[in-house]
Inverse folding.
């Protein structure tokens, strides 16, 4: 069974300057490999078959690196931003209008590594019958400001006001959507942020929730990049948390103390 994942990777990465003046964020080296290599390896090993990369700044370098995706056993295609930035949701709508998206797909960020089973998340999304699903991680304000919570089978999400509402979780960075959610909520060619789409779905009770139990890693800041570098060491797994294959590529992650 095919499984599609959209990776949003079109940002300017200004917080990482000067590292990203000449190289896109997803190609920064982490543990001796471009970060995108870690992402695509993990997705391919866990059942994803088709990747759509939504690109902007220095996107031609990403295309040159990933090609058609065959080295990972994937089909990789691209949707490049135009002259006018469309925001994260607008970029997804653009990929949809270009005929790149299937009826249902996963979505994640180009600067995030998520030790979670994407196929399991997608199967729970399918069973929910709702137009979207958000994975959340019980954060308690540690990794970033909490913006989400679970209420039974639903996720409640408020990007800016969640902490004031007493939410103790954060959106984990892996979502699943039915294509119709973007057809309904994002006009063609109109700039829109994905947070606004998720907020609208949450308010309407149309956002399923799924809990992640292992922390995510991101390279959106210098501090995040340093943490990710410690997570993907050159010399072997730290603190017994990682299981690497014989080529030094992450194969699995286990919780602390397990």
């Amino acid at each position: 069974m095919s499984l599609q994942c959209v990776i949003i990777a079109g940002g300017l990465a200004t917080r990482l300057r000067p590292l990203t003046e000449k190289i896109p964020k997803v190609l920064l080296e982490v543990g001796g490999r471009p970060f995108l290599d870690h992402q695509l390896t993990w997705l391919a090993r866990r059942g994803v078959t088709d990747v759509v990369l939504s690109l902007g700044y220095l996107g031609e370098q990403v295309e040159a690196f990933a090609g058609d995706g065959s080295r990972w056993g994937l089909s990789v295609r691209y949707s490049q931003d135009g002259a006018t930035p469309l925001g994260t949701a607008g970029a997804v709508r653009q990929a949809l209008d270009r005929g790149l998206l299937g009826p249902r797909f996963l979505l994640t960020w180009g600067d995030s590594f998520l030790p979670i089973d994407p196929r399991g998340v997608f199967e729970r999304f399918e069973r929910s019958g709702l137009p979207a699903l958000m994975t959340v991680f019980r954060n308690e304000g540690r990794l970033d400001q909490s913006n989400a919570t679970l209420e039974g089978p639903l996720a409640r999400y408020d990007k800016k006001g969640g902490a004031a509402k007493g939410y103790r979780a954060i959106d984990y960075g892996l979502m699943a959507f039915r294509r119709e959610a973007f057809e309904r909520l994002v006009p063609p060619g109109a700039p829109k942020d994905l947070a606004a789409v998720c907020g609208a779905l949450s308010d309407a009770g149309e956002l399923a929730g799924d809990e992640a139990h292992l922390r995510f890693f991101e390279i959106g800041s210098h501090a995040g990049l340093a943490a990710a570098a410690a997570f993907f060491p050159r010399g072997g797994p730290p603190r017994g948390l990682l299981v690497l294959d014989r080529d030094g590529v992450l194969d699995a992650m286990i919780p602390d103390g397990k």
Summary: The helical segments are 35-45, 59-66, 87-97, 118-128, 179-185, 194-203, 222-231.
